[in-house]
Amino acid sequence: MAVYLPGDVINEPSSSDSSIIGYGINLRGEKKVVTQPGAFRSDEGKIWLSVHSKRYIPQEGDRVIAIVTSKTGDFFRLDIGTAEYAMISFTNFEGATKRNRPNLKTGDIIYATVFDTTPRTEAELTCVDDEKRARGMGQLNGGYMFKITVGMNGRIWVNAPTTEEIIKIHDVINKSEFIIDEDEIISLVQDSYTRSVSG
Amino acid sequence: MRVPPLTTCEKEVILEALKSGKRFDFRGLEEFRDVKLVVGSEVGTAICTIGNTKVIAAVSAQIAEPSSMRPHKGVINIDVDLSPLANVSNEHDRLGSKGMELIRLLELIIRDSRCIDVESLCIRAGKEIWKVRVDVRILDEDGSLLDCACLAAITALQHFKRPNVTLEPHHTLIYSEYEKAPVPLNIYHMPICTTIGLLDKGQMVVIDPTEKEAACLDGSIVVACNKRREVCALHQSTNLVLSTKQIERCVKLAMSRAEALTAVVSDVIKQDQRERSAFKRPDGFSVTTPSLILTSGTAAARQINAPRIQHGREPEEKMLYQPSVIVNENPLSVGSVKQEEVDEDALIDEQLSIIQNSVDGVAVSDPQSSGVSKRKKEKEMVDDLLDGICDSEEEEVKTEILGSSEPMEVVPVVEQQKDEEDVTSWRKKKKKV
Question: For residue A185, which residues of chain B lie inside 8 Å, CB to CB?
């Protein structure tokens, strides 16, 4: 396992034939330059860095969970865990027109794709693909959202029929951050399932 | 920087859980988090953790000139810093409203409750006094910040020892710890803080709320008291109108907590003193290093097939004819068979046994021979009857009736025989299969 720091150039043999470049790596000409400190990973033509960070750096094409913080003109201002707020236009929702606007309030959460990360501007998100279809994106109703330091913008949204189940799933995911062994996770799930939530 | 805002869904779920007596850390509503208390290798230092909240406190002393108002009293200063390390919304060297509230309450609890004997800190009245400084640094924030800060400060004060001094006519001698044993502070009592969250306009209490829970609650009340059951401070964060009964209940909870924590603090201090007097090198804060550090050893994508989970809820129709099944069994027990399958199997078994029994019953006697013999017997009986009945016409009529009825009787027998043949042939076929 190789650990890279920002500014390093990746010279791994497995990275030469990889066509998909993932999180923490930027392409400058022919060079693959590291932008985040982390451990190098590769899998079937994909390379990325495993980064332990609480701050998200947006990349085009990432699916993220965003929190609505305010409404300004034709845009919603969103928190996706970046240094600056992100924006989403009213029209970037499925079936939305100038008259038929999505009804989002402060504190609601949406599932969206990052599609514009021009430097020195706010990242822009969208809830529709090229064919103006939602494909699972849009507002997330009910459930529970929490943060954990993994992948993309490090947010997970969970929904289950009862609160007790949500609490249990939340607990298992939180604990699994520090578990590598597969059997340990299964026993963790079993323990959690039989455990009573109320004290 | 800012913290991500609390989302509507989080708030709804947390409140719903709290109202049904559940919490995200598997605690009860009136249950505290575990407290971890560690004293450092340097005197007058302590780290306190309550859940994820972590505070370090350090006590130091220096000689200073007293104010003219209190010429023979020592001074205790409290300094709090909320660093961005604890919470990204904190700014360095700027307290904000939260920090101001914290520092004011700590001053109220530690200085104004007069738990430390300030008169013994005077060296020369009007000239020299000890100025004790308590530095409180918040390392991590997750609710009950005041409880943690107060506990850390009190432990550090208990642990602290000032250098010994002697007075000479024109000067003061300060001894190092190798020349004369340092002197601990005179502490009368230990005020312990307890944060109690309020829900439903104070109808429900949520003890020791985490940061997220606190954000969803209606407010909180902080009670500081000591083990002698004296209330040292009472602070309410929002303007919620509470009845005397509700406050009394909170105070009662805080008292039991204070007793337990006072015992913990004195245990930690005594343990440390024992180790020091045995010339054992104190562990200090090295024991607080977290065991859970980044574990991205071989964290590649992997699919995990979790054991199948059977839900307790089933449609009502099934419940009607199968009321008692797997209710108390562990739903994760491996190898459990589906209930529907069991039902089907049982039904088929029952039908089979019925069919077999009936088939066996018929098969005891040879069907064809019995049929023939039965017919013979019947013919004989009829013949006998006919023989016995002789002349009279009336009786002839009867015989005619009987005669006519005879074929009627024979027909069902034949049919029966056919049935029996069918059954046996079916059975033979089945045996072949």
Answer: 304
